[in-house]
Structures are given as structure tokens and as C-alpha cells.
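Anyone have C-alpha cells for DUF5682 family protein? Sequence:
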Amino acid sequence: MPAVFLGVRHHSPACARLVAETVRRLRPGYVLVEGPADLNGRLDELALGHELPIAVFSHYRDAERTATTWAPLCDYSPEWVALREGRSVGAEVLFVDLPSWHPAFELRANRYADAEARYAEATARLCERFGTGSVDALWDGLFEVAPADGLAERLDAYFDLVRGESEADEGDRAREAYMADWVRAVLAEAEAEAEAGAGAGAGAGAATVLVVTGGFHTPALRALAARPAPTPGRPALPVPPPGAVSGSYLVPYSFRQLDAFAGYQSGMPSPAYYQRLWEDGPEAAADHLRQSVVTRLRARRHPVSTADLVAAAALTGGLAALRGHPVPARTDVLDGLAGALVKDDLTQPLPWSERAPLAPGSHPVVVEMVAACGGARTGRLHPDTPAPPLVHDAAARLAAIGAASSRPLTCDLTTEEGLTASRTLHRLRLLGVPGRHRTAGPAHGADPVTTERWEAGPEAGRDAALIEAGAYGATLDEAAATVLAERARTTGPTDTELAALLFDTVLCGATDLTDRLLGTLAATLARHPDPGALGAVLATALGLWRHDRVYGAARSPLLAAVLDGAVARVLWLVEGAHGRSGADPARLAALAAVRDTLRHAPDLLTVTAADTAALALRIARDPHAPADLRGAAHGLRLTLAAGGDPDPGPEPGLASAARRAAGDPGTLGDWLGGLFALAREEVTADTGDGSLLAAVDAVLAELTGAEFLIALPALRQAFAWFPPRERERIARRLIERRGLRGSARGLLRTTADPVHLAAARALEENVTALLDRHGLRTAR
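Reply: yep, here.
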């Protein structure tokens, strides 16, 4: 008894209609559908009465690999119609594809990705033959708006051409071999049933086998199913390797997620259009699309006249006739509307001409047309649909902290209740679950803020996000810890995200993971090549060690290990830095973090203040060291001395060092930037004419106009280390030092960019000098 194979395109109304008609006509005993075989024991969940679209979400995780896949289903998905119609005629309906966790799906986020998109040579030839640049337009003309007569034969011919002699990739070959095993096994059962039925006088055809799969696989399945079965019986279900975690759940889906113009790489674009085509046919779909576009444009006060509509209808009809379509297809309607409504030149191709997501700067009319095609429908699961334990745990946690309402929530971090609420909301944030966003709270470990404010936001997609987050664990604690552990595993020791990861771990209260993460950090600091990234980790760790009595990480021994290792590594890296380069703010911030650690946690460090002062002296005197590091080294020595630490050694002469730096105006600003980054308070300290500010002022006053113009850009960057109030205080002291009167605030406010003002002044001086040289200046 041969099987009946129907090759389909995923999310095609024409294919879905053919599947429904075939099932009703054949009334098969078995309907085999491309879908995850591990879901066969739970197919009743799909029949609960959901509002489509929905998707089967599958997840997999082991020590080496994490994978998630979706198998979306909408009203016009052939797979969904096969399930529904097969059950209605009493057939045994089975999914016969490999489970989604299988390595065959390793590089695919969507099970129903179009194979012809991966093997596009044949479709490119067909597009050229039929004079269209889009596979979607080709498909519509051949199948969606074409007469239904001979549809099955046209589909077979199309997919035979697409498959041709192409060698499928390893994943497709594994899937096809597994599906063919199912077909052979069920065919053997059907033949046995037919023979038993014939002996009992039963009617013919009761055991027909219908196979519904993606059309690319159909030619291979026909050939494979004709071969002898390697083993009798249904194929065994693959099981995950020991220690792996996997599972599948139904999740709500949306038309936006289905839409190719929003980035979905499978099936048909413009789901709202095809939904209407499925329900009412192509002519009604075309009329509805035109009305939807006009309604959206008028709602946004874009003028659409009756004349425009007449022109669009005429263009649509002409294009349909020119392209040989008996009724207007989707691209006919869109091209007609674009021709009538877009009055400006387009800077990029129309997205439906090449199935590309909307690009930034797309024409507003085109944006509304794509939105009208896509629609806003969101699916809804039946209340009895099983959900992962995380969904119930999150609901209970939110109810317990009073976050189920839409009112803002304030968490007092000094209380157990407030800290619990904060950790719950941070774990949901980490898992990407919408509904709440933090508008105020501590920004880092040293931030003295002890309250958080969480505002309610849109909850669209929240249920789906929770179900998908269930792949990480059964509770919020477990799921958040798993996500953090994955981030720690994939974030390299040189990545600047380590500091954010450390703070997120503390915010979520994942104390066990905190210890493991800090242990990893302490072990890898010795290999860290970037002082800037190290400084971010050091500043975060110091803030947590000093102040985090709220979150419970203060005085942690592992934090102490991180501080010691980071300080030693930063000092080693900066002493080895050579060459001429501009000021590096991240590197200077790292040295500032070293300074703060020496001030606030000296007992934790192997490096002493005296050791650091000696190293700073070596850098300050090294002519090959970058200018910003030489200035920072002077500043570091000054702060160590100001802090009452052991005598840092003989001062090399700040004024003379500043004058040497001024010898090269191109590096003076970098030198001062390093100095200010490390010794900002010392610069602004009022100690009379012997102050650091006086020394800096004297050096700058000695610059010629041309030298000052060269130094000015870097000088502006250097003084940016001072906040506005401190810059005003410096201006006031400079005015007083010169015995002048005036407003310090007014001195800081210029009518134009200071660089432009300085350039203009230099130009005037050059013109004056040129006039004097030639005796052309007239007396006033």
C-alpha cells in the first residue's frame, strides 16, 4: 500500500486548503506530519481550543550547548490543518520529525524554516523565468491566486525542481532518514490492518497513510520510503544525553513574530494578508489590504485622496494582468499602492521586492503598508494548557510582593520584604520578562541609595516570555542563576561586561553563583590584558566590598581576592605601557580605582602604598611612558601623600615636570588629564601661590598663542574631569590670582566653541603680523 505524500510550503493558505481537501477525500487511517516526535504523547494539548497563532517552544541545555527552537502554527499552517482535519476523520495523527533538541536543528531557531531559502539556486532560475525578483511573488502567482485545479501536480513539479540534484545538508539528511523510518513503519501497520480488514469484509481505504511535510523533503522521502525497513516497528524516540535538560511547551505567538518583514526567516510574510486570503479568498484579501493601508495612513493624517485610490486600483489591475494573475496578488496590490501614494523618490528597494526587513529611514507610506500586511493579532493559549513550573512560581512571587497590580512599587532595600521584592523583580528583568522596569535605585555597589522604584509597563508577551524562561529552571532563583552562569561562561575575562555581570549577580541575590563568579574572576585577573576593563571590575568590587550591607556582599573574602588581584594587575599593565597616544579615560579610571582601593582597603592588598608610590615615580620619570600615565603617576603620588600614607619618596618637582610636558603642546593636555583624573581634589585645594593650581596656571601662561591652540583640544578633555561647580571655583581663583574682577560663571560661558575662538584669534594675530611685516597697517 503506497503512502500519499503532500509536499507543502509552511504557512501557505493554498497548501493548507489542499491538505484539508485531501484528508476529507481520502479519510486516511494515519496522518504523518512534520513535527517533533517527542510531542506525540501530548497532541491533545494542541486541541484544547487555542486562539492562533501559537508555537511549540522547545529548549535544550547541557554542559556544552544551549538551544531553543520554535515551531509556529497559525490557522493556515498546513501542519495545523493536517492535525485538525486528521483528528476529525478519526485518523491516528503523528509527528514524525526529530525532536527539536536534536543536533540536526543546532543552527535553526525555527523548525519550519523554508528549505528553498537554503537551496535557492532553482528558485532563482524560476524567478528569472517568470520575470520576478521575489520568491514570494513567484509563489503567489503559481499557487495562491492561481486556479485550484491541478494544484497538487504543480506543487510536486515545483518541489522537484527546487530539490533537483541538491545534496541536503547533514541536518536535513538526518531528519529525512528519521521521517522515512516512520513512514515505512506506519505503512507496514496500515498494510497489516488492510489485510485484516479485507479478511473481515471491511471497506477498502481505511488504512491510507497521508504524509504532510515540507515540500523540499518530499522527493527524498518518496525515495527513502520505497526502500526496505532496516528494522521492524516504529522508530525509537531519540533521548537526550545524560545530564541534559530539555522540554517543550506551547507558547502564545503573534503575527509580528511570524512576519518576514520583522525578521522571521520562515514561511510566508504579511500574515494578516494571508489570514484574510485563507478565510475569504484572494479578491477579498486584496480589497481588505487596500482598505487597511488607507485607514492607517488617514489615521496618521497622511493625505489619501479619492483620485489616489482610483489610481492605485487601476495600477493594481494593470499589474495583475501584465503578470498573468487571474486576480490581484499581494505584490500587485502593494506595488499599485506604492505607485499611487509614494510621491517622493525612494532611496531603497521596496521590502516586498526582496523579502527584506524594513530598513531605517523607510518611507512612511511603505512603513504603513508593511504594518497593514503584518497585522497585530496575538495568540492566546487555552487556560488548561500545561505551563512550566516557573510560570506558577513567578505568579506566586509577584502576588506575594504586591506587584500583580499596575501601581508603581517602591522597594525599601533595608527591610527583608523590600529586598525580597527587589530580587524578584531583578530576576524577572534578567530573564527578559516584560511588565516592570526600574526607574530609580542603586547604580553600583558604592551607590548609597537604599530604595528602588519599579513602574508598571506593557505586559504584552509576558506569558510567552515566562514559558520560554522556563527553559532555565523551575523557579525564579534557579532560572536567574542559570542565566547568570551562562553569561559568566560566555563572557570572557577581558570583557567589559564582567562588572555589569557581577552587579547583576548581587542584585538577583544569587549568592552561590556570586562565590563561583568571584572565584573565576580572581583566578583570571592575572591574564587580563586591558587595564580599562579591569578598572571597571575593580571599581564595582570595591563598592560592593565597602558598602554592600544591603545586598549582603560587604566584606566578602572573595571580593578581597578580586581587589588584590586587580590592583596588582593594573599596576603591572600601566608600568609596561609605552608609546605616544592620546589620553585613555578608561585606563585613567582604572588608576583612580587603584587609588581608592589603597585608601579604603589597604589591608587587603599585597601591594603597599610605598610600593605604589615608587612605581608611580618610575612612570612619572619614564620619557617613553604615555603622557596621560606620566601625569596620572604624579597625581597618584600626590594623593598617597595627602592621605597620610608612608612617605612616597622625594617629589620630582611637579612644576618642572609640567614645564617638560609643556615642551610638547600636543601632549600637555594628556599629561594634565592624567594629573586631574588622579588628583582632582589636590588641584582645587586652596594652599596659596604654592598650590598645584598655581603651578598649572604658570605653565599654561607661558604657552604662546600657537602652542595654546595646539594644546587646546586635549586641555578641554583634561578639564572635563572637573564637574561644573569645581570648574567655576577654579575660574574664580584664577580671577583672584590675577587681581581682576568679573564673573567666574560668565568666564565659563562662551558665545562659541572655544576651539573656534582660539583659531579665530590666532588667525587675527597672523594677519596682524603679516600686515606689520609689509608695513600695511594704518595708525588708528
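Strands lie at 4-8, 30-36, 54-61, 66-73, 92-97, 209-214, 245-252, 409-412, 436-440, 451-456.
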